[in-house]
Amino acid sequence: MDRSAEFRRWKAQCLSKADLSRKGSVDEDVVELVQLLNGREQFFTTSSCAGRIILLDRGINGSEVQKQNCCWLLVTHKPCVKDDVIVALKKANGDAILKFEPLVLHVQCRQLQDAQILHSVAIDSGFRNSGITVGKRGKTMLAVRSTHGLEVPLTHKGKLMVTEEYINFLIKIANQKMEENKKRIERFYNCLQHALEKETISMTSYPKEKIKEKNNSSYTHKKKRNPEKACGKYITEENNKELENDDHDDPGISVTIFPEDY
Amino acid sequence: MDRSAEFRRWKAQCLSKADLSRKGSVDEDVVELVQLLNGREQFFTTSSCAGRIILLDRGINGSEVQKQNCCWLLVTHKPCVKDDVIVALKKANGDAILKFEPLVLHVQCRQLQDAQILHSVAIDSGFRNSGITVGKRGKTMLAVRSTHGLEVPLTHKGKLMVTEEYINFLIKIANQKMEENKKRIERFYNCLQHALEKETISMTSYPKEKIKEKNNSSYTHKKKRNPEKACGKYITEENNKELENDDHDDPGISVTIFPEDY
């Protein structure tokens, strides 16, 4: 079976299976994005989480980062209110941690070039920790990840270590991050649509050149990434500034600069 | 110029340049790993940070995530003590945040197969958010990233929002994460050495088969990832448990399962 046929078979199998998540369905905020991807022959999604605020309780006997003794006190994919967190915290008897986890999306791609396009769109939309995985038999996957997190210990052995005022302050920050994450998902959707349209036009107008380009494993995008230019109408100046911050590659990191167009 | 010659030229250029980081040198905890990678013809590192605890102050006028108004009150690549944080916090006049950032390493790879091997080693060593980037002209880079973070807001408009007791508690957690990060770096070093030795043996014993395999873009590793088996002597049971936790892919995510050996 050729690669394309094999990919189609896997896609059909994967999408026909039951959703095995605890929730049993795709999160509301990524439904459109998931549908856009699954509607294209070169992609299918294998897992997704739109982003969430969670309160975890880690058992006092277990290791600090041990999953077995970990209990979920609260999970929400919407902005949350202080009272819900306060009520949930009363159930903690170990080390409770409040986390904001941004979008995580795994997309299987027909070939490396498809993953490159999607990766480029993800980075331009603010999901800077995205990356490609290529399996031993060539299975190509893009993981879409943001750096936009929050992880705050709140109780120790069941004892609350912070004030209600602090929890209120923290929830505002978590909700802001949730809001920003939602904007990035919208930006991702719009940029992706734009990139796919552009690709379709190229394929129709210059099919031979496109095929030659594909064989060279080269996907042309701008030399200098500029999210505003990449899908201008969807990016505000404020968002653009925020994007710049999500970078561990600041002057604190040992770094050697090399030209971008290599 | 063929790809290999081009890669060698870039590697030589990159490694001969000055270290442009604020610190001006490679962090102590990754020196050996960086040397191991740069000593192999198929890799060179372009940036690295061993892991650090930082205290950032974000300006009150700026956006919460705006870099321009961001000031570093404290940076340490070693475990830190409460008093240093308390002293540094006194200088905060905006929204100060304590962060633990684990290892970040960018490695340029000669070809995709080299990135696949390195990616596999990174994942098996606990750096689960690692991923490959392939540029438009085929430049192949592996970003090594962990999920093992901490991000805690401490002041608002210069006002301390938590107690000294909480700061003490927090620093213990940050230092534990620093320690675990160091173990993972050691594990990465050992696993990498093991993988490279294995590769060299294969290349010497069965050069023809290896070349054929390489042309098929297939790199053989275990069906089921098991860090303990992957580089057994370096992994303790405790570490192994911790690895399992670093996963956003829990039942909370909408997910469809598909065989691993595709």
From TrEMBL, chains A, B:
Which residue ranges are recorded for the region named Disordered?
A: 211-262
Database matches in PANTHER family = TRNA WYBUTOSINE-SYNTHESIZING PROTEIN 3 (PTHR48418)
- What is the recorded function of this protein according to its Swiss-Prot or TrEMBL entry? Probable S-adenosyl-L-methionine-dependent methyltransferase that acts as a component of the wybutosine biosynthesis pathway. Wybutosine is a hyper modified guanosine with a tricyclic base found at the 3'-position adjacent to the anticodon of eukaryotic phenylalanine tRNA.
Q: What is this protein called?
A: tRNA wybutosine-synthesizing protein 3 homolog
What's the source species for this entry?
Sousa chinensis
Which GO biological process categories is it annotated with? methylation; tRNA processing
Pfam families the record matches: TYW3 (PF02676)
Bias-annotated ranges (Basic and acidic residues)? 227-243
The protein's annotated catalytic reaction(s) are: 4-demethyl-7-[(3S)-3-amino-3-carboxypropyl]wyosine(37) in tRNA(Phe) + S-adenosyl-L-methionine = 7-[(3S)-3-amino-3-carboxypropyl]wyosine(37) in tRNA(Phe) + S-adenosyl-L-homocysteine + H(+)
Q: Which family does it belong to?
A: Belongs to the TYW3 family.
Instruction: Provide the E.C. number(s) assigned to this enzyme.
Output: 2.1.1.282
Annotated pathway, please? tRNA modification; wybutosine-tRNA(Phe) biosynthesis
Q: Which residues form the tRNA wybutosine-synthesizing protein domain?
A: 10-193
**Keywords of this entry:** Methyltransferase, S-adenosyl-L-methionine, Transferase, tRNA processing
- Gene Ontology MF terms in the entry: methyltransferase activity
